[in-house]
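Board work, copied verbatim: GAK system CofD-like protein
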Amino acid sequence: MVSSSRTFRRLIVPDDIRAHRYRRLPEQGPKVLFFSGGSALNKISRVFKDYTHNSIHLVTPFDSGGSSARLRAEFHIPAVGDLRSRLMALADETVLGQHEVYALFTHRFSKTDSLSLLWQQLQEMVEGVHPLIETIPNPIKSLIQTQLAVTKAKMNEEFDLRGASIGNLIMAGGYLNNGQQLDPIVFLFSRLVKTLGDVKTVLDADFHLGVELEDSQIVLGQHNITGKETDQLTSPIKSIWLNKGLKDIKPINQSIADDRRVAIENADLICYPPGSFYSSLVANLLPTGVGRAICQNPNPKVYLPNLGFDPEQQGLSLTERVKRLVGVVMADVDEPCGASSTLDYLLLDEGYDYGNIDMKVLSDLNVTLVKTPLIRSKKDKYDESLVANALLSFV
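↓ predict structure ↓
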């Protein structure tokens, strides 16, 4: 039973003493949970593992663009790209063979080579003779070969391999080879490359995203929402849901697994991190049980918003994003959180212009504004070390 009581202390941000303590013993570091999709958090994650080996990353499996779209259409699987990239970001870089595994998992087939040549290269990987795989030591090598062989055997001969991620092909094979479940193959690869953190999809489900715009238009599919692969939306997003398929409006939902619920409830800190606002962050909060688990956690919750331009945020001030974030979490809760909360702190760089912030709204929501240096040289990029130090100051 999670206690509903909360303990308060004087907050110092950044707390260099606290960060130094964690860096000395990262294997005993705090359980910081990130609701994270996309690649926006990968660089921060690579730095964060120097401070704690116990971070938790719940990533979205709802992407529908790029080579992931072809894999999802072929095998009816959750999107695995974000899962694969976060596993690699958190991998122990001192482990023998990790650099070769990283190179393989992040490699993409050429977009201009002939399909026959690409299929030949895939066969060479299955046989273990391709330059990218032949130097990987066993048992990792044989495990990778097995998963790629499954993918190749089940793949239509007309499948377009141009631009395909090898890591995604490996993860897809693991999914198909393990009763259409991602968790077993994620656990296995996490052990083999010694992932310094816990990475899972928030749901192990083949769902997509749907949104209604302010002008009543309906848009299905993450790739149509982000404004990166297609034209930007013509109207701000009004609401978002999980959808079954990409052809028709079929709202669907599913309860998170017990291990996800326990991870959320027991995290020492919950962070709503940078990333595409709806398709990476809010999407992670939609499954049934996420909001309730957040409300059961008495520990601090921090929102670190995007920098720069995010097409999904059109029409939304930072204050409105805070309100929508809280609203999505509370939509899953039957009653107020009581002594707990959905969001405690809004963490901002002290010199960046985030636009006007309505302090009364923050006060009404019991959200405290914290400003500290988070940017060094690139004005639209957070500095990974400064962010890590700041977040760990809350724990």
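The chain has two domains: 16-59+254-392, 66-199.
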